[in-house]
Structures are given as structure tokens and as C-alpha cells.
């Protein structure tokens, strides 16, 4: 990893347990400012738990540094105010509120001018929801709900977006569209994000770096070049399947 690049997020030795044994075992990673990184792995590998711990939604051991500040003991609300914004799996929009009201929820504490400016930006990225502002959010399609959830997070002016499986439950064409928009937002807004994905090839299009988790361990690490190469793809598949015993060591491609 290029140590000179500025890491907005640094996680060291993150360990998380729900009951007896840990489900995340001493994970370390860093996300550089202005880049998208991904946590890959099969069901139950510990991806969501890691993301939730970074957001402050699960108690964990280890260190979470944000912009050089140790936020490990901070509540989720305090991390949110610092700019760490989490978009949960399953989207969690408020079905009974309109699309416009859901957007307002994302920037509840901002002044009207900031809110208006951000709303304009969000609607530019997601014209699908721009035409549906007065509809109850529950009537939107799955893809539109995902766009709304991302839009709502952008309304908060995130410095770091934590995206839990934005492709979940979406048809391939919609997944491609959501990822296209994320790429446009990243380019235009210089967004920093950490996302969770099960699909390697979906994440590989956007991410500059990825970690493959397996049974709560980092089983492999891939940089941008490896993410886009056939060899890197094979390496990730091996790590998913545990074909190589790389547990505990970051594998540089
Ligand atoms: N609230 C919870 N209470 C107890 N165990 C949990 C809880 N949440 C997750 N787990 C367990 O922790 C492990 C890691 O789950 P996690 O959701 O982080 O994995 P994941 O890689 O995100 O998988 P998925 O893609 O299926 O969401 C799994 O064995 C899961 O059953």
C-alpha cells in the first residue's frame, strides 16, 4: 500500500463478537481520500459486521481512525456528525414518507440553503427519483429505493460513505445503473467510500482497492490493477474459496 497517500479511514486490529467467538478477527485496512474501496466475500464472512463497527453501530475492539482522529469509542451519532455516513443493507428508507421527505431526513440538521444545494446535486445524479418526489418511497422500485437511500446519504454531506451491498436484490441492469451513478458521484464529488459486495466483478469496476474476507479474516488484498486483471480475479476467487491459506496476511497483487 502506498503509505504516502492520505488515508481518510484507518482500521487497526478490528475484532467483533456477538456471542462466544469473534466473527471478525483483527482486521486492518485503510481507505485513501477520494477513492472507493470494497470488502468482498461470501455470505457470513463478516463484511457487514465490519462496516457496522466502523459506523459505530456494533461494539468492537481495535482502533478506528478517521482523518487521523481516534474515533474508536465514539457513538454512531457522533461519527455521523463527523461525516461517516452508513447506508444499510436492505436500504431502510421510510416507506410511508415521500421521496422528498426521505431526502430531507438525510440533512435534517442543515440549513435550508445547504439542503437545497445538496438536493439539486442528488436529483441531478438520480433523475429517476427526481420525477417521483411526491410519491411515497415505498412505491418506488428496488433500484429506485437504492438510489434514494444513496441520495439520502449524500444529503448528509458525507466525508466517508459506508455502503452495505448496494446491489442486493437488484436485477443486473439496475446494479449496473446504480454503480454507474456511484462512479459519476465519486468522480464529480471526489467521494471516499467503503462498500460491501458479494460480487467481485461488480465491485471491481469501481473500487481502487479491495479486501476479501473469509470467516472474519482478511484472506486477500487487491489493488486497482489486480482488481481489473484476470490474475487478480483468480486470486480473489481463491481467497473466497479458501483455496490458498493466506489468512491473516494481506496479499498484494
Ligand atoms: N446481530 C447478530 N447477532 C449474532 N450473530 C450475528 C449478528 N449479525 C451477524 N451475525 C453473524 O456474524 C457472522 C458475520 O455476519 P455478517 O453479516 O457480518 O457477514 P457478511 O459477510 O456481511 O454476510 P452477508 O453478505 O450474508 O450479509 C455471521 O456468522 C452471522 O451469522
Automatic annotation (TrEMBL):
<dbReference type="Pfam" id="PF00005">
    <property type="entry name" value="ABC_tran"/>
</dbReference>
<dbReference type="InterPro" id="IPR003593">
    <property type="entry name" value="AAA+_ATPase"/>
</dbReference>
<keyword id="KW-0547">Nucleotide-binding</keyword>
<dbReference type="GO" id="GO:0015807">
    <property type="term" value="P:L-amino acid transport"/>
</dbReference>
<dbReference type="GO" id="GO:0016887">
    <property type="term" value="F:ATP hydrolysis activity"/>
</dbReference>
<protein>
    <submittedName>
        <fullName>ABC transporter ATP-binding protein</fullName>
    </submittedName>
</protein>
<keyword id="KW-0067">ATP-binding</keyword>
<dbReference type="InterPro" id="IPR027417">
    <property type="entry name" value="P-loop_NTPase"/>
</dbReference>
<comment type="similarity">
    <text>Belongs to the ABC transporter superfamily.</text>
</comment>
<keyword id="KW-0813">Transport</keyword>
<keyword id="KW-0029">Amino-acid transport</keyword>
<dbReference type="GO" id="GO:0015658">
    <property type="term" value="F:branched-chain amino acid transmembrane transporter activity"/>
</dbReference>
<dbReference type="GO" id="GO:0005524">
    <property type="term" value="F:ATP binding"/>
</dbReference>
<dbReference type="InterPro" id="IPR017871">
    <property type="entry name" value="ABC_transporter-like_CS"/>
</dbReference>
<keyword id="KW-0472">Membrane</keyword>
<feature type="domain" description="ABC transporter">
    <location>
        <begin position="9"/>
        <end position="240"/>
    </location>
</feature>
<dbReference type="InterPro" id="IPR003439">
    <property type="entry name" value="ABC_transporter-like_ATP-bd"/>
</dbReference>
<keyword id="KW-1003">Cell membrane</keyword>
<dbReference type="InterPro" id="IPR052156">
    <property type="entry name" value="BCAA_Transport_ATP-bd_LivF"/>
</dbReference>
Amino acid at each position: 500500500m502506498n503509505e504516502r497517500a492520505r488515508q481518510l479511514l484507518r482500521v487497526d486490529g478490528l475484532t467483533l463478537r456477538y456471542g462466544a467467538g469473534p466473527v471478525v478477527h483483527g482486521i486492518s485496512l485503510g481507505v485513501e481520500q477520494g477513492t472507493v474501496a470494497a470488502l468482498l466475500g461470501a455470505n457470513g464472512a463478516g463484511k457487514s459486521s465490519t462496516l457496522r463497527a466502523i459506523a459505530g453501530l456494533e461494539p468492537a475492539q481495535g482502533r478506528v481512525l478517521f482523518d487521523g482522529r481516534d474515533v474508536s469509542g465514539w457513538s454512531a451519532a457522533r461519527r455521523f456528525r463527523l461525516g461517516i455516513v452508513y447506508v444499510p443493507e436492505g436500504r431502510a428508507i421510510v416507506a410511508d414518507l415521500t421521496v422528498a421527505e426521505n431526502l430531507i431526513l438525510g440533512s435534517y440538521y442543515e440549513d435550508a440553503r445547504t439542503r437545497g444545494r445538496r438536493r439539486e446535486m442528488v436529483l441531478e445524479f438520480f433523475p429517476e427519483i427526481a420525477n417521483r418526489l411526491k410519491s411515497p418511497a415505498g412505491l418506488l422500485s428496488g433500484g429506485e429505493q437504492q438510489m434514494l437511500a444513496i441520495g439520502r446519504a449524500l444529503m448528509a454531506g458525507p466525508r466517508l460513505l459506508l455502503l452495505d451491498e448496494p446491489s442486493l436484490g437488484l436485477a443486473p441492469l439496475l446494479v449496473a445503473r446504480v454503480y454507474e451513478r456511484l462512479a459519476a458521484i465519486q468522480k464529480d464529488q471526489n467521494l471516499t467510500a467503503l462498500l460491501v459486495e458479494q460480487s467481485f466483478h461488480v465491485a471491481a469496476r469501481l473500487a481502487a482497492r479491495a479486501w476479501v474476507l473469509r470467516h472474519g479474516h482478511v484472506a486477500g488484498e487487491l489493488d486497482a490493477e489486480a482488481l481489473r486483471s484476470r490474475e487478480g480475479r483468480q486470486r480473489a476467487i481463491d481467497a473466497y474459496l479458501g483455496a490458498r491459506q493466506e489468512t491473516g496476511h494481506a496479499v498484494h497483487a
